[in-house]
Specification:
Order of helices and strands: HEEEEEEEEEEEEEEEEEEEEEEEEEEEEE
Structural class: mainly beta
Radius of gyration: 22 Å
CATH architecture of the largest domain: 6 Propeller
CATH topology of the largest domain: Neuraminidase
Number of strands: 29
CATH class of the largest domain: Mainly Beta
Strand order of the largest sheet: 6-8-9-1-2-3-4-5-7
Strand content: over 45%
Number of domains: 2
Shape: globular
CATH superfamily of the largest domain: TolB, C-terminal domain
Number of helices: 1
Length: 347
C-alpha cells in the first residue's frame, strides 16, 4: 500500500515540477494530494523537496501520517509536442506496473497540474494534482455515495437533522439521511423551479434557486414566496439574517448577493470567480467551492471568506469536481458533482 502511495505522490510532484521548472539545476519545494477512485476515502498529502537538473530529478518526499519522512526518490522527465507541453514522466526506481499521465499543460506557465494514474499490480487507479500553493487540508475527510436516483446533484442544505439535495434534471428535491445518504423523501419541483441549483435553509423554511429566481418553500415544498434574480442562482446559503446567493448574471457578471429574505431587496454584493459551484455559511463566515477552468491554477479549491469578501483561508478540495456546500457548524459537506458523492470535511 505504501509503495503505491509513494509512487503516486512522487510522480504527481515530478509532473508539476517539469511543468514549472527551469531546466537548469534548481531547488524547489512542492505540495500535492492524491485520490484513489477504488476507495474514495483513500487519499493523502505530501511535501517534496527536490533538485531539478536538465531532465533528471532527485529529492526527498514526506508523507505525514504514513511514517515516510525525507524518503529519497529519483526520476526523469519526458517532453512531447516539441517541448511546449508536458505529456508523460517515467522513473527508473519505481516498480513496474504503475503508470501516470498528465493532461497537456504549458511547461513554463502553469502552477498546478492534474492527471490520472493506474497500478496494474493491484488494479488501483485514481487522480492526482499538485501545486506550490499554501493551501490547507481539512482536519478529517469521510464520504458516502448518493443514491443512484440522484443523477444531477446541484444544491445542498442542512435543516438541523437531514440533508436536502436538489437534482438539476429531472427537477426533484430529495431529503436524505445525513450519515449515509439514504433517501427519506422526495418532491417533484417541476413547475416550481425548472432546473433547481442553489439550496439554503433559514432555520424554518427552504430556499431553492434556479433560472432567474429563488423560491421560499415549506418542508412539503409548497411555495411561500419567490424573488427575481439578475441571473441564474448557482449557489445559496443563509446566515446573519440574510440570504447569500451566487448568481451568474445574464450579462456575464459573477456576484454573491446579500438579500433581505423578507423583501427580496439586494443589500450588498461580492465579486467572485466565474467557476463557483457551491456556497455555505458556518455561523460567521461564507465558504465557496471553485472548480476553475481546466488550465488555470484555481482548480479544485474551497475558500473561506468573511462577509465582505476577504479570503481568510484556502483549502484543497478532496472532491474531483467540488459542487454544492453546506455547513452544520462543525463540518462542511461538499458534493462531488462528477462522482455523485457527499464529502464530510472537518473544519
Amino acid at each position: 500500500m505504501k509503495i503505491r502511495f509513494l509512487s503516486l505522490v512522487i510522480i504527481s510532484v515530478l509532473i508539476l515540477i517539469s511543468c514549472g521548472g527551469d531546466p537548469n539545476s534548481i531547488e524547489v519545494t512542492w505540495q500535492g494530494t492524491w485520490l484513489s477512485e477504488n476507495n474514495y476515502d483513500d487519499r493523502g498529502t505530501f511535501i517534496f523537496n527536490l533538485l531539478i537538473g536538465n531532465e533528471e530529478i532527485s529529492g526527498t518526499i514526506t508523507i505525514p501520517g504514513m511514517g515516510i519522512n525525507n524518503s529519497p526518490v529519483v526520476g526523469e522527465t519526458e517532453e512531447d509536442y516539441g517541448g511546449a507541453l508536458l505529456k508523460r514522466i517515467g522513473f527508473s526506481d519505481i516498480a513496474n506496473g504503475i503508470e501516470f499521465e498528465s493532461f497537456a499543460y504549458d511547461i513554463n506557465g502553469d502552477t498546478e497540474v492534474r492527471g490520472i494514474y493506474s497500478n496494474s499490480s493491484n488494479g488501483d487507479f485514481g487522480q492526482w494534482y499538485c501545486s506550490y500553493s499554501d493551501r490547507s487540508d481539512f482536519s478529517s475527510i469521510s464520504s458516502f455515495a448518493l443514491d443512484t436516483l440522484i443523477v444531477g446533484p446541484s444544491g445542498l442544505c442542512f435543516d438541523g437533522a437531514h440533508l436536502w439535495v436538489s437534482n438539476f434534471s429531472p427537477a426533484v428535491l430529495y431529503k436524505i439521511d445525513v450519515t449515509n445518504g439514504i433517501i427519506i423523501d422526495s418532491f417533484d419541483m417541476s413547475g416550481i423551479v425548472s432546473f433547481p441549483q442553489g439550496l439554503a435553509w433559514d432555520d424554518s423554511t427552504l430556499w431553492c434557486g434556479g433560472g432567474g429566481s429563488i423560491c421560499q418553500l415549506d418542508t412539503s415544498c409548497a411555495v411561500l414566496a419567490s424573488f427575481s434574480l439578475p441571473g441564474n442562482c448557482e449557489g445559496a446559503a443563509y446566515g446573519s439574517g440574510y440570504l447569500w446567493c451566487y448568481v451568474q448574471g445574464f450579462n456575464f457578471t459573477h456576484q454573491i448577493y446579500k438579500i433581505n429574505p423578507s423583501s427580496g431587496s439586494f443589500e450588498d454584493s461580492i465579486d467572485c470567480p466565474e467557476s463557483v459551484e457551491g456556497l455555505a455559511f458556518d455561523g460567521t463566515n461564507l465558504w465557496f467551492s471553485d472548480v476553475g477552468p481546466i488550465l488555470v491554477s484555481s482548480w479544485r479549491v474551497i475558500y473561506k471568506m468573511d462577509l465582505t469578501g476577504n479570503i481568510l483561508e484556502t483549502y484543497n478540495s478532496p472532491c474531483y469536481v467540488p459542487g454544492s456546500l453546506v455547513c452544520d457548524g462543525a463540518f462542511l459537506y461538499c458534493i462531488d458533482s462528477e462522482y455523485k458523492r457527499i464529502f464530510k470535511l472537518g473544519i
